[in-house]
Write a structure and sequence with these properties.
Elements lengths: L40 H4 L6 H8 L4 E6 L13 H17 L2 E2 L22 H18 L3 E6 L5 H17 L9 E6 L4 H11 L9 H10 L22 H7 L14 H24 L5
Parallel strand pairs: 1-2, 1-3, 3-4
The structure holds nickel (II) ion (NI).
């Protein structure tokens, strides 16, 4: 038996959500207010929708969220999947609050500099560029015009931007109907101003730059089993230039950069999730409402 509303994408709560609005030709891409209550995750996960439901969704919303993470070491006490777990959690929360569909997470990112530590799985920049390019082009082919990538890893930023540039060119070269209006935005949840403010308030300069207590706190909130791995650690070396995986491990033997993840608490993680989702929903609202001239 299905636990879903009969047709959540076409006539259910999504119709009152961020994307409910006038057709593309009559005004902004998306208008309206948020759903009165956050939706169930099932309603906004692309993986759990059927293609006719997605086709109906596209009649009133051209936006989609893509979570982008990384699978890499996060110090001796942090989960390898930290960047993917956090990006997906923030993306699903933004989706629940906005009614915008969320694709499966891209859990492998550009983590070449972390390969000196066991468990790290990295895509080379050119590979990640190709993956993101193909994801965008697939979505654009169906009529999605606003691709909102919620990213959990700083190492993905440069490559993601390059991928967007390439995707715009390919969409035009392939003559896709959405090419002129296609836009991609990279939203790094961990650099949203309210998130950075909260991290400073809770941890000061012990937030550091990698395996930070803020991201570890979010994983503790999402995966309580990670509590068992937490323990006090010696002061970590501050961040500096890195010239490859061996250099990283030499400068940062346990994988941390200036951070003290032992300060992380599960309840902090709940606050980071709420703070990030609040900030990104507002950013997404603006992104979906942009007209072509903006
Ligand atoms: Ni991270």
């Amino acid at each position: 038996m299905s636990t879903l509303p009969p047709d959540p994408l076409a006539s259910g709560p999504l119709a009152n959500g961020l994307c409910a609005g006038e057709p593309r030709s009559n005004g902004p891409l998306a208008r309206g207010s948020f759903p009165p209550q956050p939706l169930a995750s099932e309603a906004i996960r692309l993986q759990l929708r059927t293609w006719p439901e997605v086709e109906s969704y596209l009649e009133h919303c051209k936006g989609v969220i893509v979570p982008l993470g990384s699978t890499e070491q996060h110090g001796p006490t942090g989960a390898i999947g930290t960047d993917a777990l956090t990006a997906e959690a923030v993306a699903l929360e933004v989706g629940r609050r906005s009614g915008v569909l969320v694709t499966p997470a891209q859990a492998f990112g550009m983590a070449e500099h972390h390969l000196g530590f066991a468990g790290t799985v990295s895509l080379q920049p050119a590979t990640l560029l190709a993956v993101l390019h193909d994801v965008v082009l697939s979505l654009a082919r169906h009529g999605f015009e606003r691709i909102y990538v919620i990213n959990g890893h700083g190492g993905n930023i440069a490559t993601s931007r390059a991928a967007f540039t390439q995707a715009y060119g390919s969409a035009a070269a392939r003559g896709l109907p959405v090419a002129a209006g296609l836009r991609c935005r990279l939203a790094n949840w961990f650099t949203a101003a309210p998130v950075m403010h909260l991290a400073r308030e809770l941890y000061g300069d012990r937030e550091g730059q990698h395996a930070t207590p803020s991201e570890i706190a979010l994983t503790l909130h999402l995966e309580p089993s990670m509590e068992a791995a937490q323990r006090p650690l010696p002061q970590a070396a501050a961040a500096g230039p890195i010239h490859g995986p061996e250099d990283f491990r030499r400068r940062h033997p346990d994988g941390r950069m200036g951070s003290d993840p032992y300060l992380a608490r599960s309840e902090h993680g709940a606050r980071f999730l709420d703070t990030a989702a609040t900030a990104l929903v507002e950013d997404l609202r603006g992104f979906l409402s942009e007209s072509l001239g903006q």
